[in-house]
Amino acid sequence: MKSPIIRITKEFKFEMAHALKGYDGPCKNIHGHSYELLVTVLGTPISDLSSPKLGMVMDFGDLKQIVRSTVVDVFDHALVLNSRMSNNLIDSLKQNFEKIIILDYQPTSELMIADFAQRISNELPNNVKLKYLLLRETVTSYAEWYSDDN
Description:
The two termini are about 30 Å apart. Helices cover about 25% and strands about 35% of the residues. It has one domain: Tetrahydropterin Synthase, Chain A (2-Layer Sandwich). About 15% of the residues are buried. It is elongated. It is an alpha/beta fold. Strands 4-3-1-2-5-6 form a six-stranded mixed sheet, sandwiched between helices. The longest helix has 16 residues, at about 60-75.
């Protein structure tokens, strides 16, 4: 029997605040979201009869560990800002809050999902490929990343 190509997906949730430097609407102010991240990987199930992971593309627990360590634990309950914000503001926030992340890009869902794709891809086993991400910012708004488009 030919080995099937299978996609598996794991869902994650985290809370994060951000502000969009130079934006022309209310999101220029610090505000937060309850994010949902869906991560889909592709591979063939392990066929080695001696492997404890027999029949798995990858252990969901291993995928969970990768996504938590590269994305969720990093961004959960953080304030995320663009490095173009004023240095005085950034310094003041860092003196008053513990988890401030300064990115070299605007922290929109679109750019964050591309960043997340790179972070996750770098940690996946060689036989597993990141295929799809969905980053839900609100109940009605989300960004998607497809490997075939990138």
